[in-house]
Here is the input.
Amino acid sequence: MNALYLALANLRFHWARTLILVVAAALVMAVPVLTRALLAQGEASLTARAEATPLLLGTRGSRLDLVMAGAYFTDDLPEPTTMATSEAIWDGGLGIPVPLHTAFTADGNRIVGTTLDYFDLRDLAPVEGRPFALLGEAVLGAAVAARLDASIGDTVLSDPENLFDLDGAYPLEMTIAGILGPTGTPDDDAIFVDIKTAWVIQGIGHGHDDIIAEGEDMAAAAARVVQFARITEDNIDSFHFHGAPAGYPVTAVMVAPYDARSATILRGRYLDAEGPVQAVVPADVIDALVARLLRIASLIDAVTVVVGVAAGLALGLALFLSWRLRAPEMRTAFALGAGRGTIARLALAEVALVLVGAALLALPLVIALQSQAPTIASRLIALGS
Amino acid sequence: MIAVRDLRFAYSGGFSLDVPVLDIDGGERVAVIGPSGSGKTTLLNLVSGIKVPEAGSVSLDGQDISILPDRSRRRVRAATIGFVFQEFALVDYLTAEGNVLYPYRIGAGLRLDQAARNRARDLLSRFGLGEKMQRRPAQLSQGERQRVAIARALVTRPKVILADEATGNLDPANKAAALDLLFDQAAETGAALLCVTHDHELLPRFDRVIDFADLRTPA
Here is the structure.
């Protein structure tokens, strides 16, 4: 009790040094725990999402890029495939294709152009408003809605792709029709629009002022044709698309096969290494990725041990040096009747108090961040690359 | 109270301290003088049991402490002896009151109870520090620090008070005041006072003076 009293008095008197020691020790305690928690949550989130995504089709290339872009909406995009891939699935009658166009963002949030089948396959339903029904309508994921403090009827503006590219994508103002509830998946961080809206953003479809008709056989455009930056009831009829729909780009096509047999047949159809399209089972890709993550986790563990030992030695050195400075006090204590045991108890009491303080600081930090681990992991996965 | 017989302590430099006989009674005030290195502080360390003699004995209140094991010597030291150090040796992170109660905090077998707390406060009040009990050493003057150090030496009601250059860092006024406190308290409790000093002006106030000039001899 007396050792604790003296240790506490000394630590309080040298509060700045104590604070540094406590914070350093707290970080040494918390960081490995948080790293493990985030890794575990990241693995769980990755795996769950992959298992909920039966099959992805896309342009042949990196399987990981296709899965990350198609299932997790990350920034690294594979070469786009075309709507012909999706239509081929319809025609084959082996499953439901869901085209995904993830090339654009709004306020930094991924815009996912898709069809209403996506909501059915992911079991998503707006908690406010309704799914998109018209061109130019958007449904926000829960996290996006919270970040933008958006509500039904507000608008979001797609981010310009290239300011100086006259043929490029121009910002489109989209009306918020619905807001999804939180799911703890990348859907929370996405803005869902009809895939045609994504094509409008891309410039494949557009609406503009009427072209002046000057007779049966000829037409003359006005000198300045204004393209609409927002789709409204008044101008929606002027929107149209150029080119063959089968050639319109999509990032990936998610497929929900009707049964295991259909899935096997579908995978077989895209086995040809020379073919332009590949079929990927996300769970297989993510399993391989998680196996790598586990190896990295082992490395992190080893590094953590080394860093922990180094930090422990540094803390020990700091305490040792402080004890060197207290040598006169120890001589006094010894002269007054203290023994080596007393001095050892004093040292242990100080170390114990620092560690208890560090634990008290680290514990709420760990609890708070662990409760946010799904969100953080989801965000990290969404950042992806 | 203090009885030293045939005491011998060898230094590493080839000299030794020899004290054939030294008796100090309770209430007696004895000054120890001598040049630097003559063994004055060593004598205090031997009398208090911090050092163990090569030969001879040191008895406190009839008990030969030179044959006791370390733990017992420490307990006797804590219970019997009050120390006043030259540099005051106050603990910087404790208040004046905390410093006075320090001997009870260091696990030397003394029990910190309400009576000890009252005694500490009473001593500080009598020494003019009643309003400054919660101040730390850095917030006190030299004279005040020395009074705290004397209060710490007296709080355990020691039978022996050992003072090593206790007034060496004080101005004349504080020097006289500190000595007054020590003498008054020693007289009040009947404690033997053994005081190492270089200050010859103070010697007339002691009952006896021991000159160490001749005690350190070649081994």
